[in-house]
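Hey team,

Filing this mostly as a record. A colleague (T.K.) asked me to run one chain through the structure pipeline before their review meeting, and I want the input and output archived in the tracker in case anyone asks later how it was produced. No errors, nothing strange. Just documentation.

Input sequence:
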Amino acid sequence: MTPMTTTRLLSAIRSLFPTLHYTWLGQALVLPTILLTAASALAQTALELAPGAKVITISPPGQTGDEEIIAVNRYNPNQVVMAYGGTVGGKAAYSTDAGRSWTLVNPAGKSQMGGNKSITFDDRGNVFLSYQLIEKLGSPGYWGHSARGNGIWVRHSPDGGKTWDADATPVLVWPNGKAAPQQEDMARIWADNEPQSPYRGNLYLAWIDWQIDKSIVLFTRSADHGKTWDKPWRISTHAGFPRDDTGAILGIIGTVGPDGTQYVVWNDMLDTVMAVSHDGGKTFDPSRPIFQVGPPYFGGAASFPGIQRVMGLPEIAIDERTGTLYVTWSDCRNGDVDVFLSRSTDKGEHWSAPLRVNNDPIHNGADQFYQWMAVDPTNGNVYVEFYDRRADPDNLKTWVTLARSTDEGKTFTNYAWTTKPFVGHNTFLGDYSWLTAYGGRIYGAWAEAVSDAKTVVRCGGCGTVGTPAIIRIGIADFNKR
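Output structure:
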């Protein structure tokens, strides 16, 4: 044992057992009995830094941000593009050198770019950015009641995010100035980039449709590289409640198998539900629950000190080499909130028991939340990003952790992605973080509270105020191990 290791262990022992009196004899007697405890404490709180870890702030000074997204072009991995919302109405940034440098742009020009964004590259290297625009929400939490103009739009960039088409493409829009029969929300876009898929090049889009008496999943597709979109149709067999965060359909997202099969998942009450299409999104099998989870919504300061609200919504991804499917989510089945993963090796028919992705001690009162998952298509490694409070006994200081599995999601190693925590004060971080991976290089995007902020900002969708958040991009490179 090196002197430095001994010093660190003694420091950990003193923090764990502050009432013990230490003499050289006392240390010699105490060390054999509690050495493992101290070493365990160090392992739990001092995670190894992710290889090649780099974190930058992408939002300009004085500007806030939330609901960030990021994607890498598998046909030109040097191209990475991201976007986010906030007080400036939304920005995007692109990189042509694998995230080493970034340039900010405004995809919407002088027009507005709304919230709940998602992003994807297609098989030709085009970028597609989906978002929602809302003139006026309906009643608080009951958005289908008295809703006004709203809709889902898609913007297109032909050159990796440098320039964007002047006009966005409407997908489903209710005009401003009029009462709307529905409220469209939380759209997610993805592309079929599978080399052997008969539907390669298709784009897919799904979202929540809030109605007076229910919430359902609407789905559409584009077979002409985003020029036009089919009339949306319902793919959720069971309807959720019509109130936001109270038994509603939430968190729709999809992925594509090597043969072009569509797998779309969402949360419905205590179920993760899946719908499958075998014909390029033309039709879907009846949606069905695939496993149970804990409640997906954690609201208020009592649930997450310092943060307005947190979602534990599911994400799905696939190992293109083997067809193995993965779903990750977070819930409070262990008292505090943990991140979980389940896997299927038979095209979603059967799923493994939930695996806890964060490796801190169970029931320790530390929350891990706002997870996002990516599977590297070049090697099948699974990555999960999440906010992490394991190192703070008060469960307030928040770091970002990157978990990695190299054995098809059977085990995970946790790495530190940030070294300095943030502390929020009723801060709105959005409803998700985002992650993408290619060739051992990992890109994450997340929001962080400005811990020392002396001002407050209003959350448009929440109607409350708190300290502002900024947008950060994290890069890790496992080729440098």
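Quick notes for T.K.: The radius of gyration is 23 Å. Residues 1-44 have pLDDT under 50 and may be disordered.
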